[in-house]
Amino acid sequence: MPAQKPKTTPRGGIDLGGTKIQAAVVGARGKVVGEAREPTPTAGGPLAVTEAVALAMQLATSAAGIKPDALTAIGVGSPGNVDERAGTVAQARNVSGWDGAFPLAAKLSEALGTRVVLGNDVSVATKAEFDLGAGKPYRSLLGVFWGTGVGGGLILDGRPWVGRAAAGEIGHMVVRIGGRLCGCGRRGCLEAYAGRASMEAKARRLVDQGEHTALFEIMQKRGRTRLTSGVWERALQQGDKVAQRLIDQAVEALGAGIASADNLLDVEAVIIGGGLGTKLGEPYVERIREAMMPHLFVDDRPPELHLSTLGDLGGAIGAALVAKTRKS
Ligand SMILES: [Zn+2]
């Protein structure tokens, strides 16, 4: 009698963001069979974050009808400096109180009873779009994740390109020399105009200067402490002038930054994802395409622009893919 083919065992994926932790249980062909979301703790440093990540994964596995230790492995897409071999994360800037190297893989493995591997959040999300999402038809692509910051991931000639570990930082391409101050301490970066954190800081300065905007009222009404993507979307729907102006500047900056990256790399496609990208959707992908055109050197065959098809779950699915391909 032929041996029965082993059933694919599910893997876990975690997208660790500055605002939320998205957990997913991923089965055959990248199908999500359980998911859960928890807010990222704003106090308590890496230990509190580890606990919240473990909780999110427990909830996701229970939604899938299994226990965490039944997962073959768990992948975590993390911000900051990720040392994949050591299983540590340092300087996760958007996560409060996380500076030194923290052994995230070992701590999570202890809490959840299975193997844990780490990857860079943006790289794993780009790989997920390449393998399973909007990037499937292409051999080269640039993933642009428009959210709290602006992250970039690259696939060149069918393979992820990470440079010496720090490639893809499209958010820190200079779109205006001597321009707006960026969270990284430099000036004129794309992220200083298009990152949600920078846009919020700019909106607060405009309010201090006496301008009126509904942004912060919408934020309070929704019980939020930050200008989330949903808050921006609502303000735009209401025709809020400050929100429109800041978003217009973000789109202009994205157009210039992405076009510059494409002038260098000549990729087949650009995939737009991230919290704001996903929330604002197709009309804004079209606007970014238009904003790119004046800056493209070879403008008779621009790269294809697509909205991410995995959306909010892309990071977690990508992290689960990392758990599949990496042994340690
Ligand atoms: Zn910067």
Task: Give the topology.
Elements: E1 11-16, E2 20-26, E3 32-39, H1 45-63, E4 73-78, E5 81-83, E6 88-90, H2 104-112, E7 115-120, H3 121-132, E8 141-146, E9 150-156, E10 159-160, H4 190-194, H5 196-208, H6 215-221, H7 229-237, H8 241-265, E11 269-273, H9 274-280, H10 282-292, E12 304-307, H11 314-325
Parallel strand pairs: 1-4, 4-7, 8-11, 11-12
Antiparallel strand pairs: 1-2, 2-3, 5-6, 8-9, 9-10
Residues 172, 182, 184, 186, 189, 191 line the site of zinc ion.
Brief summary:
The chain is α/β, with parallel strands linked by helices. It is built from eleven helices and twelve strands.
CATH architecture of the largest domain: 2-Layer Sandwich
Return the string of H and E elements.
EEEHEEEHEHEEEHHHHHEHHEH
Which CATH C-level class of the largest domain is it?
Answer: Alpha Beta
Q: What is the mean predicted local confidence, pLDDT?
A: 93
Q: Show unreliable segments.
A: none
Q: Could you give a short account of the major beta sheet?
A: 5 strands, mixed
State the CATH superfamily name of the largest domain.
Answer: ATPase, nucleotide binding domain
Count of structural domains = 2
Structural class: alpha/beta
- Bound small-molecule species: zinc ion
Q: How do the strands line up in the largest sheet? A: 3-2-1-4-7
How much β-strand is present in the residues? 15-25%
CATH T-level topology of the largest domain: Nucleotidyltransferase, domain 5
Distance between the termini: 34 Å
Number of helices: 11
Tell me the overall shape: globular
The Cα radius of gyration reads 20 Å
Number of strands: 12
